[in-house]
Write a structure and sequence with these properties.
two-stranded antiparallel ribbon; mainly alpha
């Protein structure tokens, strides 16, 4: 006699728990990304450009955007090859979108910081950590400010 497998209407599929876990991870990552976004973007342009490097990067990106030379970053007419051009490109795009201001200068770094917090949180959650990732995200987010 052949046994038939009857499933109860109340039983859940095996992969339901996995999907619920994935949804929980997704919601927690979105929550941390939103919180870190608030932390990094709040008051982004509240102070002027400080230190010696931030204005140099900003001016090189401004000159790149003004001259249309997207290959070679310049500062006061001298080529500036001490960093790869990606940060200059991102700042110059920010200048085109939002104008030349402190907010546009810091925008690429703020997006990168939110991405680092989100990816770090996701990585720890994905590998099964439950509480340490919260501590990591909360400690890391304000440390870059």
């Amino acid at each position: 006699m052949k046994r038939s497998s009857v499933t109860s209407p109340l039983s859940l599929p095996k992969n339901f728990a996995l999907k619920a876990q994935q949804r929980a991870i997704l919601w927690s990552v979105l929550w941390v990304v939103c919180l870190s976004g608030i932390a990094f973007f709040w008051g982004l342009a509240s102070t002027g450009l400080v230190d010696e490097t931030e204005p140099l990067f900003a001016e090189a990106a401004r000159q790149m955007q003004a001259t249309g030379d997207w290959i070679t970053p310049y500062f006061n007419g001298n080529p500036r090859f001490d960093k790869p051009p990606l940060i200059y490109w991102l700042m110059a795009v920010g200048f085109q979108l939002f104008g030349v201001n402190e907010w546009a200068v810091r925008l690429p770094s703020a997006f990168a910081a939110v991405a680092v917090v989100g990816l770090g949180f996701y990585t720890l959650r994905r590998f099964g950590f439950s509480r340490p990732e919260l501590a990591r995200a909360y400690v890391e987010a304000p440390s870059a400010m």
